[in-house]
Specification:
alpha+beta, NE0471 N-terminal domain-like, about 30% helix, globular
Length: about 180
């Protein structure tokens, strides 16, 4: 699950005109899952939204909780014995994971990562004129975690978690950021 206070753009996955609704999509995945309930081990490779809904159905989560599950690019999930285990892929480069995100006044973000790197990023100062609706305070406050763990705003502007982590790591080494934990 996402850390408390982090918003997910969960509704956008099912808003295409003429597209499948969440209910139809979840029913299709639930049917597939039920057909395999008594079978031995299966390895399933899928896209992120399917992985979210599949894990959500398996765990009995609500739609909003299921669609807020992370889609890690460096982990796999084992669903067995009514539990979900997240397993790091050996040899995969670590992917920074945001555990705290808040919009601050002046176009800044307060960001913290699971590895303890944390600090403030002046987004508007780093991308003058390039953040669309994020330039307005009300738009900037609508920051969310995207499907790949980066941050995004309505209108499409986003920053990868890796770019934020790299920036804060440089700041930490130069004395401007902080290492927590």
């Amino acid at each position: 699950m996402r850390p408390a206070g982090l918003k997910a753009p969960a509704g956008r996955c099912f808003s295409a005109p003429g597209g499948e609704t969440y209910e139809v999509f979840a029913a299709r995945i639930a049917h597939w899952l039920a057909e395999r309930s008594g079978q031995a081990c299966r390895i399933v490779v899928t896209h992120g939204v399917v992985a979210r809904v599949l894990r959500g159905l398996y765990a009995g989560l609500s739609r909003s909780d299921a669609l807020s599950l992370p889609i890690p690019q460096d982990r796999i999930h084992r669903l067995a014995d009514a539990s979900i285990e997240e397993i790091a892929v050996a040899g995969a480069p670590p992917v920074p994971r945001i555990c705290r995100l808040a919009a601050l006044d002046g176009g800044c973000l307060d960001v913290a990562f699971e590895d303890g790197i944390a600090g403030t990023v002046d987004v508007v100062g780093r991308f003058p004129g390039g953040v669309g609706c994020a330039m307005e305070p009300a738009g900037f406050a609508r920051v969310a975690i995207d499907d790949f763990g980066g941050v995004c705003w309505p209108g499409g502007f986003g920053i990868t978690a890796q770019a934020l982590h790299d920036h804060l790591t440089r700041e930490t080494k130069s004395g401007g950021g902080e290492k927590i934990g």
